Write the structure tokens for this entry.
Amino acid sequence: MELKFERIAGRSKPFYLLSCGLAGLVAAGVYSTWLMHDQGLHLSGMSSRIPWGLPIVMAIFYIGLSAGSLVISSLYGVFGKLEYKPFARVATYMALLLMIGALLSILTDQGRIDRVVVEPFSHFNFLSMLSINPFLYSSYILICAAYLIVMMAGNEKWTKILALIAVLWAILVHSGTGAIFGFVPRALYNSPLLPPSFVAAALSSGTALMILVILALFRLTGRPLDKAPVLWIGRLLAVLVLIAGYLVLVENAHRLYAHESRAAERFFLLGGAHSLLFWGGLLLVGSVLPLLILFHRRAGASIRWVAVAAVMVVAGVLCERYLIVIPGLAYPPDLFPGWTITQSPIEEGIASYAMSLYEVLQALGVVALMGLLFLWGLRTLRLLPTEARRPTEFPARAVAIGCP
Amino acid sequence: MGKTMERRKFLKTGALVGAGAAGAYGLPLLTSLRASAGNALAPSAKCRWGMVIDLTKCPPNCTACVDACKRENNVGSTGDRLRDIYRIRKVTIESTLAVGVAPKAVPLLCNHCDEPPCALVCPIKATYKREDGIVIVDPHRCMGCRYCVIACPYNARHFNFRENDQRPNPAYPKRQRGVAESCDLCAHLLDQGKQPACVAACEGIQAKALCVGNLNDPASEISALIRNHSVKRLREDLGTEPKVFYIGL
């Protein structure tokens, strides 16, 4: 049976109401961003000791989500699994939007937005992770866009080529993002495991988000959905969460074991509110509970429970993104081993960060913009199939790759 | 047969694209790595600025250097302790290893590392090391990403969170908001043959705890100080090769 992709009507009252609400949030975000740049970034919760805050946390969160969306799309694009073809277009579109959101978050976080467009081209530093990454991000956006276009044009050959390039590029993008932190000599940043663990958390959070988006879209638009592929994505999610959790455990165990990072790790594990995010947010809610659900014989086979697990994974990875950025900055570098600084005109010990309302509004604005573009994308582009049913006849290749 | 050919072609295209991307990126990366390796530790410049801080001469409660720096560089206090700029600051340290060790007052500033992590991470080379070894921020190029503030292992970098309208020194521009800030050894004064503001202030109060000079000149005062004293640099283990030397630390 041929899949038929159709636009959503987008003429209902809830559609317009939601659009207006999102547009309002975008306006609030634009206003708070403008204020922070007109008056200065002191309006944010950032300080000289914690110079990166919520915008960077959200940016790396979006970047991660984007990868996972692409994984779902690649199940069809790269591995030729036809039962995931119904989700391929919308997944690629999501990957694209999330990356745009990430770039916007980073862009609006700069002290001098006016220089962002010109300076990187005239004085590019090939050794800085922060100049390599925007190059990777923008090229990734172009690759995703090209991939979506050829997929929608029905060009199977180029869909495969671009899907493979997009997936490889996504791994590069996420390793690069992990390296922004992992390659900096701070006690809680410096780690060669950060790039792969960033990729793993990215894949799990994005996959979880796609489960939620697929379920919501098909239910809200009243289109029939075959549950088997979604449940299979749930099993894939369980594996990804396991890998991500394993990398987090190894990284933290190593820090605890090594003398030079033990004090920092103790601060990370038991040092304050962020430790709660680690134990409660990332480990319990983000990893253990979803794994219990997904591996449970009955719960793992129930769409409702898989959705609950997906929400938990997304929340857990958001905690993880916060834990990558903030505690590493809050923990001070040891300037005088064997000595402690008792007096200083600036904050020298463990620094504190409290996000300001402006930052929160800015973050909500970016989320709302992505939501708005998503809604109107569904209305203008043929992203969703009229129904997603298991294909009656599998081509030999798809079966050979193996679907449980 | 057709399928295999197609797959082979597809894989070939993928490999070619990957190799192309790696080449396009790798080549400049390698050349810049070589360039940075060439500069390290063997500055060809005749002049290589460094600083010696003699803690035995530094009066504990004196902030003459800090105050002079704020005046000279127009970075006066704004009352926001978390976001104020300190190109040089003075801290008190106490031993955690033994009791009864007298606390020490230590001026902290940019170490003008020969291998500066801040310059390494700056995405647009707004922070760079001059030929004479001074690590400097170009405030007209910096886009305020704050990666240098994060990468500096000495907390010597600050960020201009707000416009600072105080301008006690009309000869020096006021600080713009949105850019990184750190000590540049008053390069504008050194270039005119004058002493940095902190050094002049320390001499002004007859303490003479600070000395800036040419590390490449064996006849300079700073070279003699380093020769004749046991000097320490902060966190030498990090491999950043700081050029601020402490006596009595």
